[in-house]
Specification:
Structural class: alpha+beta
Number of helices: 21
Radius of gyration: 34 Å
Distance between the termini: 69 Å
Shape: extended
Number of strands: 21
Length: 650
């Protein structure tokens, strides 16, 4: 058997697996012709997919399957060409969706791994005296169904509980000459013999419905009340040393909690056909996701990548009119994510100005509904989820769209954004290396500056630097602080003959920019572009400019500058806060008799924080700081008191 794989494709698959989302979901594996050959579920998609691609390189330099793979997996891996993922809310949802998709697609390598059974449901028949039993089939006869439930043991425990609490009929036929055995053992109320009326029987059935209906509203109150009652009985049994009975009641409580959990979002037994459309956009890139529910089950997820400069609603209109056609008819209901849209129209009439409950203008709805009527002869309802269940499905769809957009942005890199930045700043080349500066201080105390470095739009953290400023101690002068840090940085780079950045970004407006420009001119640096980003209005200031540049908030170039500025601010503020904290610690330590500035400094160097001092070992502190043990006990005591006072003030 040939055990060799296309090495280039395996590299791509391994890279994709490492970049997979870490949450629960479904993975769909395809062959070179795009056919689905395997569908699996995972608690962590990333971990599961990584486990598949544990390949070794043979002496010929080709990838081969690791020896710890079983034959089935090894066979599957030889045929995988690509895979995709669907993110869901939890592992339970993944289990249900996996089951649905396997039945829909019958993947080649799932056939021998699945028994083809559906998960059990609980059925309440549509009769005068309904029966309640477990089933795997849904019959359209107005019966009520609850489930599906992947935990068969919980279903059995629940059915046993219902049988004990609500002795409903078991026999298929209602007419009999006399009560059966179940009546005599108190497991049936004998409606066949007129022992109970239809109305009284219906009350018992309603209690069962409430028990099975989940945790929402008053129905949930029924489940909660039953759990409270059973918990009390469990404790009574335990006090009476009836441990076996207590364990049985405990198992029953767990069954109720398992079956009365949150609704499933991939199987909900709602027969209405509906689509959920979500999207994510960044700049001109947009990804649309469609979750399709048919016959109460999620039958698939479609993912579409687009490029568009239009606003959200216009992009959605274009997507809808492209997605639905004669081969993909629209369902009667289409849900899409909420968004706030600013109309570009200069004049809109009063009727169009009126907002619907879905947050869109009536005119918006009319246009797309007219298109549906013209194309298909009917118009589906266009809705934004208003209840928890539909909102949860929409959240899953949106999460999938966000994940795909993240991958697209990573694949594309920052090149287009840097090209846009070069055009805006009138640069000769793309600013592949950017350095940013920020100043942090509090009333002139502990002034520090931070330097962050970015390469191709990605933080280059090994080139981050902190500067403790020397010329502005005790005063507040951001311009002087900026001049000092820029001079120290670039005079050193010139002296050492190192590479200068393509763009220097300072946090601030025209004052900070001109201060930095003056230093660069003094140093004879003319090949570095310089700009400032003022936070309040996100204005871009260039040297000696009279007016700032204002870019659209969705501009990718602006996002690059914001990323540099925000990272710079975070880096500067962190050091300033650390220095201020240490400054507060010294008076506390020096309040101990025998501890002066030198010994306080030695303690702080050894332990760095009050938290560490408060839990320090006395002998260890005495040895490391050359302090008597009595003084160390006093130091530890004042540190604990200081921490307690700090907690009171929070």
């Amino acid at each position: 058997m040939d055990n060799q794989i296309n090495s280039e494709n395996i590299k791509n698959l391994k890279a994709a697996a490492l970049d997979a989302p870490s949450g629960p979901g479904i993975y769909i594996m395809k062959d070179s012709e795009g056919r689905i050959i395997y569908i699996g579920k995972a608690k962590s998609l990333k971990n599961r997919l990584k486990s598949y691609f544990s390949w070794k390189i043979n002496p010929c330099g080709q990838f081969e399957i690791s020896g710890d793979k079983d034959i089935k997996t090894a066979t599957l891996m030889r045929h995988i060409f690509s895979f995709e993922t669907i993110i869901v809310a939890n592992e339970y949802e993944a289990l249900l969706l996996e089951n649905t998709l396997i039945k829909q697609h019958s993947p080649k390598y799932n056939i021998n791994l699945k028994d083809g059974k559906t998960y059990p449901l609980i059925r309440i028949t549509h009769e005068d005296f309904p029966r309640i039993f477990r089933t795997r089939r849904i019959i359209n006869d107005n019966s009520l169904y609850f489930g599906p439930f992947p935990d068969t043991q919980s279903v059995n425990a629940m059915m046993d509980l219902i049988d004990k609490l609500f002795p409903l009929r078991k026999c298929k036929k209602i007419k009999k000459n006399g009560p059966c055995m179940y009546y005599h053992i108190r497991r049936c109320m004998a409606p066949c013999c007129g022992k109970i009326s239809i109305d009284d029987y219906a009350l018992h059935v309603q209690c069962v419905q409430k028990l099975l209906s989940g945790t929402e509203g008053s129905q949930g109150a029924a489940s909660s009340a039953l759990i409270i009652d059973l918990t009390s009985k469990m404790h009574e049994a335990a006090r009476a040393l009836q441990f076996e009975q207590a364990a049985q009641i405990r198992n029953t409580i767990r069954a109720i909690e398992n079956l009365a959990g949150e609704d499933s979002f991939v199987e909900d037994l709602n027969p209405e056909d509906r689509d959920y459309i979500a999207w994510a956009a960044e700049g001109v890139l947009a990804t649309f996701t469609v979750f399709s529910m048919r016959g109460g089950k999620m039958t698939g997820r479609d993912l579409f990548r687009t490029r568009s400069a239009a606003d959200e609603w216009e992009s959605l209109e274009l997507f809808i009119t492209s997605y639905y056609d004669s081969t993909r008819l629209p369902p009667l209901k289409i849900y899409f994510q909420d968004f706030s849209r600013k109309r570009a129209d200069a004049q809109i009439n009063e009727k169009e100005e009126k907002q619907t409950i879905n947050g869109l203008c009536e005119g918006d709805f009319k246009l797309i509904q007219s298109w549906f009527n013209e194309q298909f002869g009917y118009s589906p309802e266009l809705l934004i989820p208003s209840d928890k269940h539909h909102a949860a499905i929409m959240a899953m769809a949106r999460q999938n769209a966000n994940e795909d957009l993240r991958k697209r942005l990573k694949e594309r890199g920052a090149g287009p954004a840097l090209d846009e930045l070069a055009r805006i700043l009138d640069l000769d080349t793309r600013p592949e290396r950017i350095e940013g500066f920020d100043i942090a201080q509090l009333d002139g105390k502990h002034p520090v500056a931070s330097l962050v470095s970015f390469r191709n739009g990605i933080p280059d953290k090994k080139n981050y630097r902190h500067f403790k400023l020397r010329t502005v101690i005790g005063i507040v002068d951001d311009f002087a602080a900026m001049r000092e840090v820029v001079r120290r940085r670039y005079s050193r780079l010139i002296r050492e003959g190192k590479e200068l950045p393509d763009l220097i970004l300072v946090d601030g407006g025209i004052g900070q920019v001109n201060a930095a420009k003056g230093v660069l001119d003094d140093l004879g640096i003319s090949g570095c572009a310089l700009a400032g980003l003022a936070k309040r209005e996100e204005e871009i200031w260039l040297p000696e400019a009279k007016e700032p540049l204002v870019l659209p908030r969705q501009s990718e170039a602006l996002k690059v500058l914001q990323h540099v500025r925000d990272e710079c601010h975070r880096f500067a503020t962190g050091l300033n806060q650390k220095l201020r904290s240490k400054d507060l610690f010294f008076p506390i330590l020096e309040s101990v008799e025998g501890i002066g500035p030198k010994r306080a400094l030695a303690i702080m160097k050894a332990y760095e924080s009050l938290e560490n001092i408060a839990c320090a070992d006395i002998k260890e502190m005495a040895e490391s700081c050359s302090i008597k043990e009595d003084a160390c006990r006093a130091v530890r005591a004042v540190a604990k008191l200081a921490l307690q006072e700090r907690e009171k003030l929070r």
